[in-house]
Amino acid sequence: MLLNKEKVLVGSKPLTLEDVVLVARNKHVVDIAEEQKEKVNRSREYVEKLLAEKKVVYGLTTGFGKFSDTYIPNEQAKDLQVNLIRSHACGVGEPFSEDVVRAIILLRVNALLFGHSGIRLKVVETMVEMLNKGVTPVIPQQGSLGASGDLAPLSHLALVIMGEGEAYFNGEKMDGGKAMSLAGVAPVSLEAKEGLALINGTQVMTAVGTLACWDALNLANWVDFTSALTTEVLRGVRDAFDPATHRIRPHAGQQLVAENIAKLTKGSKLMTNQAEIRVQDAYALRCVPQVHGASRDALQHIHDKIEIEINSVTDNPLIFVEEDKVISGGNFHGQPMALVMDYLSIAAAELANISERRIERLVNPQLNDQLPAFLTQAGGMNSGLMIAQYAAASLVSENKSLAHPASVDSIPSSANQEDHVSMGTIGARKAAKIVQNAYQVAAIELFSAARAAEYKGPENLGEGTKWAYSFCRKHVPHIEEDHVMYKYFAQLVEEMKDVEAAREAREQLV
């Protein structure tokens, strides 16, 4: 695994979504801020003190869940932690992708560095070493209720830290101990409290949500490009984006999108004035600021909640050295993430919904301003983009099913001790799938609008839409005859999700 030599210093300042993406996907090196190491050490010393005093503390000298009233003597404290990890590693289904697992490890490291978990610094440093040397635990996607933390999936991470379980190294799936050995990372024998500290947290749902939110924020930029290009080739009415309209309904997202469309189409020879061709456009064109803007406002709220969560401590119990106390609370409960993951699902699904409606207008000869039917000049012999629209319609319909909220569900567990759970990890996984589907729809719209631009003359495009057209043509050629397109859709999605491409796109916007 090739690492980027640039560093993300964990513990020196709050992590951002971009920090997580740089480590998870761009493989930046991770280092621990020196000032946090002392906090971790003091917290561990406090745990040792509690053990010496034989204090009754949940998860330290007691069992877990319904067994919280069962006392565990000090001499069995280490075995308790090992048993915890082995018994809780009950994840099922396909494993998470490498970027998600790397994000999980990073977020767990960051939470532990606050010094409220009682874990040894050595364990945290081992996790950092795994990131930097490319050991990626196999973590099944299913099995978390999203309360008491992401217990099952995080246990699969802890297994590899112990030299057990399974992991990927240099692209090969293997025994976790072997992966650690090949990478030159020494496994850790867990001591009192450490197993619980590793698995009692919301880092799985939050890692999935962080990457999905980052992708959705960039998607919101891309669909402003695609909608501007579509509106332009359909000779849209520019008056709908006049700032006067949006000043008197001053939602931030709505105003931003209207400004973006106006900027992207500046200098266009295709946009029209009110009543020049038609008085007003269909909603999929005219209401882009209102629809995209509402999703943007939602995404900003989701972003803010995620940044709080990735810089929070979500263990139980929590150790407060300065106050000389240990508190059993509920910070592990995933409800704050569960709700915003459902919100993310809806916000991203709506960006895809309206994009598909614009694709329909591009290919439908009754709606597309005299463009060739299905954007092919040899209709009949060629089907053009007929089935591309089918694919987009399929994706948005799938999204509608996936957008049903997970957070309204709950099921009791641990003999009704844990009687309300968040289902936040299910919500995060669904949101990530919806975002990916939405990218596919946006790619189809960009592909379609760029082809339509060929018939209207790319030289007639606005300043920003010309950039979007060129971006598409850089990766996808114009081919008039029927040809295989799915590879081009996939290529556009890959390029749109690239960090550098996303940055360049943002530079074209307000």
Short account of what is shown:
The protein is 55% helix and 7% strand. With 510 residues, the protein is mostly helical. It folds into two domains: 198 residues, Orthogonal Bundle (Fumarase C, Chain B, domain 1), CATH 1.10.275.10; 267 residues, Fumarase C, Chain A, domain 2.
The third-level CATH topology of the largest domain is Fumarase C, Chain A, domain 2
State the fourth-level CATH superfamily of the largest domain.
Fumarase/aspartase (Central domain)
Measured on Cα atoms, how large is the radius of gyration? 26 Å
Number of separate strands: 9
Strand-pairing-aware structural class: mainly alpha
CATH top level class name of the largest domain: Mainly Alpha
Strand order of the largest sheet: 4-6-7
CA-CA gap between termini: 37 Å
Structure description:
By secondary structure, the protein is mainly alpha-helical. The chain has two domains: 4-201, Orthogonal Bundle (Fumarase C, Chain B, domain 1); 209-312 and 345-507, Up-down Bundle (Fumarase C, Chain A, domain 2), CATH 1.20.200.10. The two termini are 37 Å apart. It has 19 helices and nine strands. The strands form four sheets. Strands 4-6-7 form a three-stranded antiparallel sheet. A two-stranded parallel sheet has the order 1-2. It has a two-stranded antiparallel ribbon with strand order 3-5. The radius of gyration is 26 Å and the shape is elongated. Its EC number is 4.3.1.3. Pathway: Amino-acid degradation; L-histidine degradation into L-glutamate; N-formimidoyl-L-glutamate from L-histidine: step 1/3. Keywords: Cytoplasm, Histidine metabolism, Lyase.
